[in-house]
Amino acid sequence: MKKIFSYAGLYLRRTDYMLWVPCIILSALSILLLMGILDTDHSDILRMSNRNIFVQALSVFLGVCGAIVLSLLDYKDLAKLWKVYAPLSYGLLLLTFFIGVGAPGRPDARRWLVMPFAGVTIQPAELLRVAFILMFAYHIYKLGERINHPLHLAGLLAHLAVPVVLVQIQGDSGSALIFAVMAMCMLFGAGLSWKYIAGALVGAGVSLPIIWNFVLNPWQKQRIMEVFYAADRDIEGFFFQQHWAITSLAVGGAEGSGLFADGHIYVPEMHNDFIFSFLGASLGFVGVILTIAVMSVLWFKILRVAARANDMLGYTICMGVFAMMAFQSFANIGMNIGVLPVIGNTLPFVSYGGSSVLTSYLCIGIVLSVSMHSAKTMFGSQG
Fold it and tell me: Which of 14, 20, 36, 365 could pair covalently with 70 via S-S, beta carbons 3.0-4.6 A apart?
C-alpha cells in the first residue's frame, strides 16, 4: 500500500496539471448543466433521468482512469501497438452496419452499439478517433521527410479515406469532417509541401459540385441552405433546432436565468449537441465566455506540449488531438448560433454522451503521455 501511495504521489508531481484542470472544470460544468436540464419541464421529452447524470459521471470517472493509464505508457509504444487496436476499433465500427442501432427519431442512422448486460450504447466512430490519431501519426513518423513523395502521400490519403468513407456511409458527415481535419492538421504540422496544400484547396473547390450532387443527402443539403439563405429557413422543419437554440441564447442575456430557473426554452438535443444553448440560457454571455476561455487554455496547452515534444510522432499526435477538439468546439458552437449547419458534433467534455467523454479523456491521456515522456520517463531514464 505504501508503494502505491508513493507512485501516486510521484504521478501527481510529474503530471501536467494544466492539461487536467480544464478537463475537470468542463466535466463538472457538464454535470451541473445536465442537472439543470433534468430540472426543467422538458426532461421527459428529452428522455432525461437521474440515470443520465450517473452515466455521465461514470464516463468521466472511466475517462480519467483511462487517461491516467495512457499517460503512464510511452506514446511511442502505444503507436507501435496499432496492430492490436486497429482491428478492434474498425471491427466495432463495421459491426454498426449489421447490429447497430439509431438515435431516437433517426432509426436509420445506425451508429451505436448496445453494450451487453449494461443497457448503454457506444459510438465506435468516436472511439476510432483515438486509434486513428495514433495510427496516422505513426504512419507519418515512419515516413519522415518522405511524406512529400507522391506515392507515400497517396498512401497517407488512402489511410485517411478508410474512416472517412465508412462514417460517411453511415451518414455521419460530422465525424467524416473531423477525421479529415485531424489528418490535414497533422500533415501540415509534419511539413507537407505547400504545393500539395494549394492543390488540395483547388481540388476541394472543384469537387464541391460533386459532393453536393452525389455525396450529400437531401436533408444535409437543406440544412446547409437554411444556414446561408435566411429567406429559405423553415423554423418548423430543418431549422427548428437552431431557431430555438438562438432564441435560448438570446434570452439568457449577460448573466443568464440560472441553472434551475423556470421557463427554459425547449431545444431538441439540448443535453447533447445543443447543450451550448442551455449554457447560454442559464449562465448567460458571461458563462459562455468563461467556458470558451477554459477550452482555449486546454487548446493552448496541447499546442505547447506539441512544441516541446521530442520527436515528430509526439508532435503529430498532439496536433491531431488539438485539431479534433478545436474543430469539434467551433463546429458545435457554430451550429448553436446558427452560422454553421447541424452536423451532429458534440461539445468536448460538456455534451452528454459516454463515447464522447471517453474519447476526449483518452485523447488527453495520449497528450499527457507525450508531455510526461518527452523529458524523461516517469520511473527511470528516457527510453
Answer: 365
- For residues 128 and 171, what is the distance between their CA atoms, to the nearest angstrom? 16
- For cell 494544466, the residue is 18
Would you mind telling me the total number of residues written for the chain in this entry? Answer: 383
DSSP for 59-119 reads HHHHHHHHHHHHHHS-HHHHHHTHHHHHHHHHHHHHHHHHH-BPBTTBTT---BEEPTTT-
How far apart are alpha carbons 377 and 194 in whole angstroms?
36
pTM for this prediction: 0.93
Cα separation, 337 vs 329, in Å, equals 12
Tens-place pLDDT, residues 48-63: 999 999 999 999 999 9
The β-bridge partners of 114 are 121
Closest CA to 256 of 234, 232, 277, 285: 285
CA angle 175–179–182, rounded 5-degree value: 130
- Residue 75 neighbours by CB distance under 10 Å: 29
Amino acid at 262: D
- Rounded CA gap, 320 and 326, in Å? 10
Round to the nearest angstrom and report the end-to-end CA distance of the chain. Answer: 28
**pLDDT (tens digit per residue) in 121-177:** 899 999 999 999 999 999 999 999 899 999 999 999 999 999 999 998 988 889 999
- Measured between alpha carbons, how far is 74 from 371 in angstroms, rounded to an integer? 10
Cβ 349 vs Cβ 30: under 8 Å: yes
DSSP 117-185: TT--EE-HHHHHHHHHHHHHHHHHHHHGGGGGSHHHHHHHHHHHHHHHHHHHHTT-HHHHHHHHHHHHH
368 in Cβ contact with 16 (< 8 Å): yes
